[in-house]
Amino acid sequence: MKRLKASYGCPVELALDFVGGKWKTVILARLKEEPHRYAELRARIGGISDKVLTERLKDLERLELVEKRSAADASIVYHLTDRGESLRPVLEALYRWGDHAAGALPVTVRRG
């Protein structure tokens, strides 16, 4: 993960350092739905490699957006932190925008 800069030109620039890139946002969107184990995330996010998923989860942990917790069966489950939860309205807005845009474009969007 790149280090955060000491100074930003605007708040959007800082926000994009946190969630910029395709995979971080997709991971956060999946965790917004509910906590997931690694294998569940891997199955729900098509096209991401194990290496990239592992790296992005570590990035999101360092940024204190995601945390690992032990489940009752001793497995590890990824959850949004309070900081991650604060992105919920942003993620929901991106979902709505993408859903609306998909209706006007020659694309298919998998749901679920």
From TrEMBL:
PANTHER family (UniProt xref): TRANSCRIPTIONAL REGULATOR, TRANSCRIPTIONAL REGULATOR, MARR FAMILY
A Pfam entry, by short name: HxlR
Gene3D superfamilies: Winged helix-like DNA-binding domain superfamily/Winged helix DNA-binding domain (1.10.10.10)
Origin species: Sphingomonas agrestis
Alphabetical UniProt keywords: DNA-binding, Transcription, Transcription regulation
Ranges of residues in domain HTH hxlR-type: 10-106
Name listed for the protein in its UniProt record: Helix-turn-helix domain-containing protein
SUPFAM superfamilies (UniProt xref): Winged helix' DNA-binding domain
